[in-house]
UniProtKB/TrEMBL annotation:
One of its GO terms (biological process) is DNA integration. Pfam families: Phage_integrase (PF00589). Residues 62-210 form the Tyr recombinase domain. Keywords: DNA recombination. SUPFAM superfamilies: DNA breaking-rejoining enzymes. This is Recombinase XerC. One of its GO terms (molecular function) is DNA binding.
Amino acid sequence: MYRIALEQGFCSKSRKSLAPATIASMIAPLRSLYKWGSDPNVGIFAHNPTTSLQTPKVPVNSKNHYLTKREVIQLLNQLRKQGSRDYLIGITLVLLGLRVSELVSIEWRHFHTDPSETSIWLTVMEGKGGKQREVKVPQTLWYMLKQLPLDSRKLKKRQDPNQRLFPFTIRQVERIIQQAREQSHLEKKVTPHWLRHTNATLALLHGASL
């Protein structure tokens, strides 16, 4: 019954078939919800009806402005050589799929846990159109962010709620990524927005919601 209801939900009002990307984006949040709710420690759902759903194959459409996994590793390795903050800028852009304007606006108060206190979430304050959205933060990334170096010239104390994680301008972040691209000898003209496309491309191929 659950599966029938889910599959019937993937039809438009005109009864036309939805695009694979649309279906994948609808399945992803349902899959996350039921996976979380059916966890023995949560116990909201007795079963997870999404386990039998197949995510359709989705064609990639980022105008080729994305990096392969190998290229991402190559770029991140160079960013690590440039410094821990540069590395965290790069890996945050890739893992969270943020725009540069969103990245430089992050403050510690924008992070919060879910009701079960099992996951860390980021409220993105400058989404497209002035809207807010919630982005799940991987535990490994959260641990690294908490180790951000303290710049005593700019910051009063570590993790002040109103403190920005990356006190840079958009142009400064662009230069950091440009320097890493040049030093790592990538042929692609990588910009910070490419890292957002890279996140979207890899996530879409794995059925995540964009």
